[in-house]
Amino acid sequence: MKDIRLSIGTAIALGLRKGALPHPPTTMYVMVGDACKNNCAFCTQARDADGGDLLSRVTWPRYPLAEVLQAISDHGVGSFGRICLQSLMDPAYIANTLPEVVEEVHSASGLPISLSISPVSSELLAGMRGRGVERVGIALDAASPEIFHAIKGEGVGNPYTFESHWKSLEAALEVFGKGKVSTHVIVGLGESDMDVVSVMSRCASSGILLSLFAYTPMKGTKEIGQPPDIGRYRSLQICRYAILERGMDIDAFGFDGNGKLISIPEPLQGPEGAPAHIFQTVGCPDCNRPYYNERPGGVIYNYPNTLDPEMHMSCLSEARNYLSPDAC
User: Fold this and answer.
1) Furthest-apart CA pair in the chain: how many Å?
2) pTM surpassing 0.90?
């Protein structure tokens, strides 16, 4: 029998679990694979971690696939606009079971599928595309080669390098095309602002979509960083918007000798130049990813909901405070 895991919000939305949803998920989040063979230092599902049913802050209860498919049949897809299949690096599962799961979930829901996966062959990706996968994500996580080595590469026993991940992203572009391949960077692992903005620029020039996450220390994993200052994160959200959505060049931004962001073009510091949506969750279409990095009532890095004018102005103020001379 094939089992899959659902984010707790997805399970509630499908009627498989009771609970309140302050911000219902607009994507159906599914985790597949029996056990991850990778050992990423920050991840609750790493082979040396003791994260249980957690992935970041989210609990992922396990269900028989047949039960989930029945729930989709009984309840419909509701507010879901797509499915995000997050695959653990489990080679046997990926080769033997993942194709069937993709096909069955796509057939039952009729929704487009985004597949988040570690580097795999172009042939496997092409097969996934033929079964209903519309987009693919391969996470860089780290914004520099040195940090990648320490938290995701040979430093933790994984067979990857920073550049090998870029090559995998470029290979995925050949299968899915520009605008259909994504990656993300975790802010708070010791990288500089310039490191992050440089990755943004490289993604923009390649046609790769980029999302930002905030480092979230989790029980059962190595503590390898600290949650970023909210003003720093807001500033990088503005940079991401300017570079990936407006096509601005990295030279438009100023950095000090340590790679700290110290200037953003003036129009991007106001509500007309930096619209409210840039502080919401960025990902595939219909992704709002509620409370993946945050606790309700705590610091919100990526809002899962539309911001009102007061919240928008507060985000802009946080960014300006980070850029002020006193923050250097």
Assistant:
1) 60
2) yes
